[in-house]
Amino acid sequence: xxxxxxxNSLDSEQEKTQNEDTxxxxxxxxxxxxxxxxxxxxxxxxxxxxxxxxxxxFNQSILNSLRNKGYINPTPIQKAAIPELMLGRxxxxxAQTGTGKTAAFALPLIxxxxxxxxxxxxxxxxxxxxxxxxxxxxxxKSYSSESSNxxxxxxxxxxxxxxxxxxxxxxxxxxxxxxxxxxxHIRQGTFKIKDINCLVLDEADExxxxxxxxxxxxxxxQLPDNKQMVLFSATMPSEIRNIAxxxxxxxxxxxxxxxxxxxxxxxxxxxxxxRHHKLDALKRILELNNEGVIIFVRTxxxxxxxxxxxxxxxxxxxxxxxDIPQNQRENTVDRLKKGFINxxxxxxxAARGLDVERIKLVVNYDFPFDKETYTHRxxxxxxxxxxxxxxxxxxxxxxxxxxxxxxxxxxxxxxxNIPSNKIINEKRMEKLIExxxxxxxxxxxxxxxxxxxxxxxxxxxEKYSMDDSNIAMAAINLVIGNKSFFVNEDDSWIHKQxxxxxxxxxxxxxxxxxxxxxxxxxxxxSFETYxxxxxxxxxxxxANIISSICNSTNINGRSIGKIQIFNDYCLVDLPRxxxxxxxxxLKKIKFRN
Length: 593
Ligand code: AMP
Hints:
By secondary structure, the protein is α/β, with parallel strands linked by helices. It has 4 domains: 201 residues, P-loop containing nucleotide triphosphate hydrolases (Rossmann fold, 3-Layer(aba) Sandwich); 159 residues, Rossmann fold; 58 residues, no CATH class; 65 residues, Alpha-Beta Plaits (2-Layer Sandwich). It is 46% helix and 14% strand. The protein has 24 helices and 18 strands. The strands form 3 sheets. Strands 1-8-2-7-6-3-5-4 form an 8-stranded parallel sheet, with helices on both faces. A 7-stranded parallel sheet has the order 11-12-10-13-14-9-15, sandwiched between helices. A 3-stranded antiparallel sheet has the order 16-18-17, with no helix packed on it. The site of adenosine monophosphate has 14 residues, from α5.
């Protein structure tokens, strides 16, 4: 009879991990104490790291590699699956990526192959995509990095056969691959499968979605009969149950109900946007968060056109779609991981299994086809216990899809507004101030630069009689550059999009637009935005601003552009070519003293 393990609550696990984190900190503090023998510290440190995994009976090489990876405690799926797999049982596991499922099957298999000296592979892992194949193979390699002569090979389509054939000729323990390429190698006789004693199907539901059922069955039929079988799937539709019934022998069943916990780390939001405003809305979203973003679109063509548009707006972007050659894809993911690229525009298939910890935001630019696609997409953020955000673009016609989606994932997705000029400008301001502050904190770090800065300051004071505040202003001006710092495009369309049934009550715009046709139609580049330090809290209104400006300067009321009033300041667009004297007068404008 199948053994069913329900893992309901992870709270106590998390609590324990927290306590252990604290003790790790304590341990680290101890490192500084000179009176402790460094050797005994090493021993206690090693015991600390290994404790959580020691009970499984892993050999020292595996424990060492886990220590190198910084794993302290097994995750719930590892706790449940590892003992079963060590006993040689078949296993049916329902768990998503991000739960630690790869280590759950990789570690016991590495342990079992510790003394393997035979040439032919013993374990075959099948994955739906080459990305996942590479990732799983990398995991096997890192968990076996301290085990001598343990070999893992990844074989997948889109790359040269010759290299794969030559590695398959040598000693190999584990082969990880995609169904199509595995079939090719079996047919050509370049992958010897007669000694395979364990088959793992990873993300089995995905393989089915991608139409691999026949291939998988063909492969299973070619493999030796007496093998251990492991099947992992994020969802458990009837087709997966049927495969399990057909091929698995009295499997241990593990259901990780923590799927909700995983997605709880992801704050799920949506916004209404008409189709022709999607790109504008995207750019505005990226104003608030542009570091570690994946944008999901439906077609390859769209990946490139959106990437181009974003690049033109100054973002570092790359695309991931089925047309990109494998080595280039790997390179892209690597650059994303290292932070050379901040934004990835991807199709669903190309981004399968992507595991990049620094992804903070997932944008569903096109509505996902189904719940599974949505869950997979948003799962690209919130990795390794970090929090993340997912934003879904919804147009008028997709409203009922949204309701269906919420029902099927049993989660309410929160509505947000497209960021208005006001929000973006506040963010730009905040960033500028932060950057200046950070750079003031960093100024002491480089002695050479410090000397240079002092030299420049002395020069400015001596040659041009500038005082500190003038110099500071000039330096900030230099940072801002020639381009208009604040966004001043017409954002009235946003308010229309935001004016939906669901958030009508939330609307709270304190930005006043000047609505005369003349002002809405003005040419942006003939204006400059000025900031005045009075705003809504001072009771200021548009009329007061116009009269103050006109009374104190020779500026004609008709030539004043857009006026935005915020809580404690306001932004006014004025002609770009104002005379220095007028500018000086503007500086002195007061409102109610
Ligand atoms: P997976 O679900 O296998 O894709 O793993 C998700 C992430 O969790 C990967 O980045 C793993 O390196 C990490 N991970 C797996 N097991 C552990 C563990 N016991 N402790 C800390 N991190 C882990």
